Amino acid sequence: MPTDPAPLADLKVLVVEDEVLLAMDLEMMLEDAGCQVVGPAHSLDDGVRLAKEAELDAALLDLNLTEGRSDAVADALAARGAPWLFLTGHTREQLPDRHRDAPLLSKPFRADGLVEALSKLLGKTGR
């Protein structure tokens, strides 16, 4: 019997998350969905560099990193037209004004919520 392909097969997804255990969880969730993880970037500088240079289809950004907010990463992604969503425990009103309408996935979340949010971000529909 054929199996359904992973919902997000072969998509390259940048992960910017400074907490190593959370980054590892994200990697596992994404890999289970068929994604190729770019990074993860654990620092703002690495996140900005990868956002500008890496081959990617989408990005997941922790809003608050140790060095500050990930606004500069979002700016780099916006400049190249790459879709992203913020991962945060904050409300939409706490997003930077210029990214207030960016997709947001509230922490904590489950793998199916992450897959659904990424699918919506990329205009993919599940069956």
TrEMBL record:
> What InterPro entries does this protein map onto?
Bact_response_regulator (IPR050595), CheY-like_superfamily (IPR011006), Sig_transdc_resp-reg_receiver (IPR001789)
Answer yes or no on keyword Phosphoprotein.
Answer: yes
Give the top-rank taxon of the lineage listed in the UniProt record for this protein: Bacteria
Pfam family name, one: Response_reg
Coiled coil ranges: none
Q: Which residues carry this modification: 4-aspartylphosphate?
A: D62
The chain positions of domain Response regulatory read 12-122
The answer to keyword Cytoplasm applying to this record is: no
Which SMART domains does the entry link to?
Answer: REC
Per UniProt, the keywords (alphabetical) are: Phosphoprotein
Protein known as: Response regulator
Origin species, per record, is: Marinibaculum pumilum
